[in-house]
């Protein structure tokens, strides 16, 4: 789909127009003009009760008296001044569905005039483009019969003007691209999307952008680096662990410290010897959702050419039971030197991440954010709506909360204080890899914090937000919008 910003005179439109209609008969300025031209056509429809302006209502009108446009899409937009972000996205979703069902090739939308509560034109257009792009997403690589997407629409014009609108389209398109890339790898089945596959995607990214260089470390290199916790998790799998380093350098000062994003990349997590129950185990193919989102973000910033240095790290491996698998009771010596007693092999994400968080010290990071489908406890605490945020740095946490609120890719901060560390005590090693029944999302974050003293750090637990269950099962691409926005803001403030 191509998006344009063009201030268009309503009377000149020959193709198709989208206008908003408020509830309780109030006209948007474009609806008012069309009503006048057509001698009260809309007024009549309202009086006969055929349109009400309620959200969810989309009418296609053709051959309006005295009006040249081929089709007029009249969209209910609810109560003026009361439309929130969620409702606005719903309006766009409903509209685009009806537009797609017609033969319209080009539409000129006046919905950019619709005011979203506490939001400006920029966000109106960002939400519009992101919602439309999402409506086109399908994952059908493995279906022998593809669903027909017989859509005529190719051009979407926002009838407005200005630099801000243009920038909103660019930002939204990049976010949507990142979300799509993240979804594609995350939805991919674990027999195809294994650690090697993840690494290949990381390498392919470097061939698409001159600003990116990718390096991949295999188990031999990880062993030389003494990343024993990471390797222990991978031990039960015939698929070799792969740590991908995607280095994006475009800061005006080439020596500027990089922002490092670390993604948990368990391409499958069976739990290991502490085997998971069979029910819904297939969903553990999404246990690389953190790596998928980091990969998506790197695609998006390369598209935007943000003036930053960013290193995306995909910590790929697989957690399986096997004769050679690591066991409960094993004591591992991490790269940092801290020893960890394994009390549950299903708490593997923190083991992979702790060594990766030590590894990235060598980049002398400005800050580090890890992204992980880390705990079921986070889903219990926050459900599927908010990612869990944990940080040792209030300013960084605030910046992430702000980006989350701006994009509506929500996150909620959880506390992190020394009491939680006490739950991680082991009789035999420096740390245990689980912290007991209570506060599981926090003790997982507390575990990681032992490996992050060298830099500003935040952790996003996306176990509840990275994919949807049920009929619409599939990857969501979260938290790509949040992270890309965070980086856009960082570039602005630099
Ligand atoms: N990948 C899981 C976390 C997870 C669970 C993500 C459900 C999404 C949905 C993680 O590796 C795990 O198994 N965590 C355990 C930790 C426990 C053993 C302390 C969990 O949450 O049960
Ligand atoms: Mn696990
Ligand atoms: Zn896991």
From TrEMBL:
Binds 2 manganese ions per subunit. SUPFAM superfamilies: Macro domain-like, Zn-dependent exopeptidases. Pfam families: Peptidase_M17, Peptidase_M17_N. Mn(2+) 2 binds at residues 264, 269, 287, 348. The active site is at residues 276, 350. One of its GO terms (cellular component) is cytoplasm. Presumably involved in the processing and regular turnover of intracellular proteins. Catalyzes the removal of unsubstituted N-terminal amino acids from various peptides. It catalyses: Release of an N-terminal amino acid, Xaa-|-Yaa-, in which Xaa is preferably Leu, but may be other amino acids including Pro although not Arg or Lys, and Yaa may be Pro. Amino acid amides and methyl esters are also readily hydrolyzed, but rates on arylamides are exceedingly low; Release of an N-terminal amino acid, preferentially leucine, but not glutamic or aspartic acids. Its cofactor is Mn(2+). Its main location: cytoplasm. Mn(2+) 1 binds at residues 269, 346, 348. GO terms for molecular function: manganese ion binding; metalloaminopeptidase activity. Belongs to the peptidase M17 family. Residues 344-351 form the Cytosol aminopeptidase domain. This is Probable cytosol aminopeptidase. Its EC number is 3.4.11.1, 3.4.11.10. Gene3D superfamilies: Leucine Aminopeptidase, subunit E, domain 1, Zn peptidases. The gene is pepA. The keyword Metal-binding applies.
